[in-house]
């Protein structure tokens, strides 16, 4: 049924583009259309894993409704908050060209939409197409407030790969029996790590490995000999995941909504915030095959949920009583499997990566342990050695301001942030193997709302370096408002003399998994004026402070300048 809905929606998308081009005056030039959506933020009673609880959703759906559009379309979404919780929506991967006010991260580009209020997001997907998703960007509401956003090529423009017989959206997630906002609040108050998820989910279904979930299983029905496009989205909060289908290869054709050279593998690792589109051929004997999701356990001190989520890749005609073949996943800490897929990601065509660099940045990322200053250390200092867990970039833990940084920047409100985020860490050392570890005396970070200002048009190279303070770990780093070329990555400490760069066909991404105990080099042009968040997409790391903000100054003229704020911009 799901594939019929997706095919129908694509047909409807194409049909409505013709209608909208004729009948919608707003934003309809050169054949672009305007898509209208109405999001109601509301709670619903959800029963999973033998328990029932209220969860926050959009329109009572988990996962939420799919947004469909075509390249260059305008998307208008009215969000009305009918819950007692603050909320914002981020359109993950959309570059928000000259529409920074609608990017969505709470207290970065807007104040949250409060209970009973509404805000209309209004943006265009300029020269973008592929698999995106939207999600809440305040507290940990993203755990249930998320959904896919599929942007098709313009009418008459084919995919650069074999046209699939069907398309399916596969959203990976995590599920907790406890209220997510209470978990975040309690975790931060404790100073210690968060509890592991109670289950992983595939399109909201945990599968038969979990209690009371024998029939709570997502299933794709396939026809022998046909080809299927699976749009994989990791909407999970705190865990990177391996994904595989028993006895079937996956051919990656798109990463982070950018086409890639086809690369075939038997499994993929996809971190929170990342999307992959893969082709799967139904070329095996008729039967039932498992789709499996398990954690990539890159953090050696992190406690993971080790029970896999299972869905079914079911051949039509398979006997109803036949057992599903088990999917073979890599070892849960298999760094080679992760690197093999990353090595295979290449832009579809040769690209022109700039070689002259205007701004060099070197930013360390990782965890910290702060000294305990609480009068109740047993309750509030449950980190290592009775400390308080934190996270930082260049040893600065990001602190959310009281009003949005974008509003403070636009209105020139002083005291909200400082423009002194450093270009390099406070000192250089063996970041991976010789990091300070006398907890908590030399593992502390500074706190602040520090930002880095970039001149419009700056050509920036940024080195992201994982550190061994507390724990080396793979960090999915997401950049708002821009995509970037991943020109290099490797294990150990970054060495500019020995580092090997790909300036011919590097992948163009918005979220990069910085390797465990390693580094990644990205290049981007700061050509989108506004305020843009760079942060780890593991939510507990973001809550602990693993983020920073860029301000891209205005260029020349209206097309290089931040527009005025919308009239219904929420107030803090």
Automatic annotation (TrEMBL):
The keyword Signal applies. It is found in: Secreted, Extracellular space, Apoplast. Binds 4 Cu cations per monomer. The keyword Secreted applies. GO terms for biological process: lignin catabolic process. GO terms for cellular component: apoplast. It catalyses: 4 hydroquinone + O2 = 4 benzosemiquinone + 2 H2O. Its cofactor is Cu cation. Residues 1-21 form the signal peptide. It holds the Pfam family Cu-oxidase_3. Residues 41-155, 166-317, 421-555 form the Plastocyanin-like domain. One of its GO terms (molecular function) is copper ion binding. Keywords: Apoplast, Copper, Glycoprotein, Lignin degradation, Metal-binding, Oxidoreductase, Repeat, Secreted, Signal. Its EC number is 1.10.3.2. It comes from the Eukaryota. CDD domains: CuRO_1_LCC_plant, CuRO_2_LCC_plant, CuRO_3_LCC_plant. InterPro entries: Cu-oxidase-like_N (IPR011707), Cu-oxidase_2nd (IPR001117), Cu-oxidase_C (IPR011706), Cu-oxidase_fam (IPR045087), Cu_oxidase_CS (IPR033138), Cu_oxidase_Cu_BS (IPR002355), Cupredoxin (IPR008972), CuRO_1_LCC (IPR034288). Its main location: secreted. Belongs to the multicopper oxidase family. Lignin degradation and detoxification of lignin-derived products. This is Laccase. The lineage of its organism: Eukaryota, Viridiplantae, Streptophyta, Embryophyta, Tracheophyta.
């Amino acid at each position: 049924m799901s594939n019929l809905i997706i095919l129908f929606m694509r047909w409807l998308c194409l049909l409505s583009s013709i209608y909208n081009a004729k009948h919608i005056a707003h934003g309809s030039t050169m054949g672009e259309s305007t898509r209208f959506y109405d999001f109601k933020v509301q709670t619903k009673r959800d029963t999973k894993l033998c328990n029932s609880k209220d969860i926050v959703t959009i329109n009572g759906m988990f996962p939420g409704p799919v947004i469909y559009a075509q390249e260059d379309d305008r998307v208008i979404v009215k969000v009305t908050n009918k819950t007692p919780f603050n909320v914002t929506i981020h359109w993950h991967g959309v570059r928000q060209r000259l529409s920074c006010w609608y990017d969505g991260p709470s207290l970065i580009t807007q104040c949250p939409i409060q209970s009973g209020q509404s805000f209309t997001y209004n943006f265009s997907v300029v020269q973008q197409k592929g698999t995106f998703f939207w999600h809440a960007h305040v507290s940990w509401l993203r755990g249930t407030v998320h959904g896919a956003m599929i942007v098709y090529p313009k009418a008459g423009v084919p995919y650069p790969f074999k046209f699939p017989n069907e398309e399916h959206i596969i959203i990976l997630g995590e599920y907790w029996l406890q209220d997510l906002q209470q978990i975040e609040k309690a975790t931060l108050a404790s100073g210690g790590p968060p509890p592991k998820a109670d289950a992983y989910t595939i399109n909201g279904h945990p599968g038969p490995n979990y209690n009371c979930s024998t029939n709570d299983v997502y299933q794709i029905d396939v026809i022998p000999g046909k080809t299927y496009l699976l749009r994989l989205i990791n909407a999970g909060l705190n865990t990177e995941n391996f994904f595989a289908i028993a006895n079937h290869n996956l051919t990656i054709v798109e990463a982070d909504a950018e086409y890639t050279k086809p690369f075939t593998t038997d499994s993929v690792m996809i971190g929170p915030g990342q999307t992959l589109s893969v082709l799967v051929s139904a070329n095996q004997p008729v039967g039932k095959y498992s789709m499996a999701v398990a954690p990539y356990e890159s953090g050696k001190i992190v406690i993971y949920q080790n029970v896999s989520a299972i869905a079914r890749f079911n051949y039509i005609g398979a006997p109803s009583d036949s057992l599903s073949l088990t999917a073979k996943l890599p070892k849960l800490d298999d760094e080679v499997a992760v690197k093999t897929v990353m090595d295979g990601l290449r832009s579809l065509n040769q690209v022109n990566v700039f070689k002259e660099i205007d701004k060099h940045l070197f930013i360390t990322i990782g965890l910290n342990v702060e000294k305990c200053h609480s009068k109740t250390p047993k309750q509030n200092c449950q980190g290592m050695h009775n400390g308080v867990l934190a996270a930082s970039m260049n040893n600065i833990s990001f602190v959310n301001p009281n009003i949005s940084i974008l509003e403070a920047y636009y209105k020139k409100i002083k005291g909200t942030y400082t423009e002194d985020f450093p270009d390099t860490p406070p000192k250089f050392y063996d970041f991976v193997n010789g990091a300070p570890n006398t907890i908590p005396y030399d593992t502390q970070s500074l706190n602040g709302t520090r930002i880095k200002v970039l001149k419009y048009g700056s050509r920036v190279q940024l080195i992201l370096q994982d550190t061994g303070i507390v724990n080396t770990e793979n960090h999915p780093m997401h950049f708002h408002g821009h995509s970037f070329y991943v020109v290099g990555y490797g294990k150990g400490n970054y060495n500019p003399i020995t580092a090997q760069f790909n300036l011919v066909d590097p992948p163009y991404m918005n979220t990069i998994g910085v390797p465990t105990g390693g580094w990644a080099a990205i290049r981007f042009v700061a050509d989108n004026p506004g305020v843009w968040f760079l942060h780890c997409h593991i939510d507990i790391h973001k809550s602990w402070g693993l983020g920073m903000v860029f301000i891209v100054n205005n260029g020349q003229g209206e097309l290089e300048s931040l527009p005025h704020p919308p009239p219904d911009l929420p107030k803090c």
